[in-house]
Amino acid sequence: MAFGIKRHELVKWKKEIEAGKVAFLTHYWIDDRFDNMKTVTKAGASNLNQLYKWGKKYGLKKEWIHVREDGYSHYDLIGDIQLEILKAEGMEDQIDRFNLK
After folding, report:
1. Does any domain span residue 45?
2. Which of 22, 60, 72, 99 to pair with 44, CA 20 to 30 A apart?
């Protein structure tokens, strides 16, 4: 279950993906499989090859991509890798907003 984001943030994420960028969206998240994780960052792109190449530089595997028919395929980033990637991508605003330090 996702919460803690505004509609305009979701729209912005989708528009960035549609524009050919790798886009980031962080939100609060509850999933029983990951009890101690409270947030997730979706790193998405419409071009799967672009997304794979982007993820490869962070050690992410192609099979971890959540492939979506609607064009908003993404990696779900949680835990240490989430923080590492947000820092590397200059997403300090999301780190601060969601207390990820």
Report:
1. yes
2. 99
